[in-house]
Amino acid sequence: MIEVSHLYKYFDEREILHDVSLTFEAGKTNLIIGQSGSGKTVLMKCLIGLYTAEEGQILYNGRNFAQLCKTDRNLILQEMGVLFQGGALFDSMTVEENVMFPLTMLTGKSPSERKERADFCLSRVNLEKSNHLYPSQLSGGMKKRVAIARAIALNPKYLFCDEPNSGLDPKTSLIIDKLIYEITQEFGITTIVNTHDMNSVMEIGDTVSFIHNGILWWRGTNTEILNTENKEVHDFIYAAKYTQQLYNRILGNE
Amino acid sequence: MKGLQFIGEYLLLMRRVFSRPKKMAYFRKQLIWEINSLGLGSLLIVAVVSVFMGAVLTIQTSLQSESPWIPTWTIGFVVRQSVILEFSPTIISLFLAGKMGSSIASEIGTMKVTEQIDALETMGINSASHLILPKIAACAIVNPILVIISIFLCLFGGWFACVFMSSIPSEQYIEGLLSFFRAYDVYYALVKTFVFAIIIASVSGFCGYRTKGGALEVGRASTQAVVNSSFSLLFFNVILTKIFLG
Asked: Quick one: fold of A1-79+156-221?
């Protein structure tokens, strides 16, 4: 479980996050949604330790990240798996080497154990025959799947996904969403997904947090979000006329 | 003010770079890869530049020394001293600043803008040390070797000019090469090259590491790396010359 309380983040004088308090539960897919520039990526970067918040605290199963020494922080970082927007695969390494990289650097496993674990992770994301390909030889969806395999290589307690569906077609997006959801359930991970894809919200959003102008504006489930009367949330999810028409048709209003 | 900020940021990054690698075995593997990529990849250009530089230097020196008062063998002596003291360590290092510097900055800059460096940081790996230290170590090993090769090829280029372009008799040139040799000059050249190598790799790594944005900024970082490392190299050239020979 990750608890965020009274988080403030500034860039120079500009306030990016204002008093954000949230709880991300284990074994659930927690979605953060919001318009571009709303502060959700900054929140995610605070959660994964790339930014330091000016005020507030982030607790990982009760451990305050900011107050820990470097060694203990590294231990928490090793409990995290991160799926970056573009995959962030290392160009000079093959798929297999990418997945084995955290195992090589952070564990004392033997080469055969590392290979075995990498094979397992790659088979879990349905990429059994791509071990010796380089990232430049992969499609967008395959890159994301390799990045997921690398993120789960160390059996993480927390999985962070930044815009996992950006640049993917709807069908591949569904595959990635399904994969993230299954992995979360299977390994009991605390998963946090940063997205503005409404399909993801409806498919995998156990909890949904809406960030607006750096403030936690609304929080609920994926069924509650459809009926919310919160104007900003409503405007966000029904931004496309088509979605509104579809919703009205389902409710029989048209 | 901007210059001071640049130096401050550079020194802070170097404090992170010069730390013990997380896995020594992995560091050794990276080091060998960098030696192969940066060193062997530069061998051809160093060889070509050196042979031509040596030939031109010999022809020009012989043209400037056409006087009955100056013995012909002094041409070989002047060429050797010029090559060991300045041409090979400084000019070749400037060439390497262009080749290695742009390669290091664009590689690290691309990793920065594609979030590969963020990926390393979120694994708890010191990305600065992981990426830049092997390149500094590789340059510090490879560049002095390249400069030694360059010295020999420059002198060979000079001899080639003597034999095939009839600047001066070959025997006179060789006699000049062997006259008044001081091992200290070679030591000075190698120390200078070693310092230049560290400057090239660290300044270029720094320029790549602070890249923000996209492809355009990677290109800018690459140019900035060449310019900054070349200026730093010329500045330290004066200081080192004053210390060792002044």
From this structure: Rossmann fold (3.40.50)
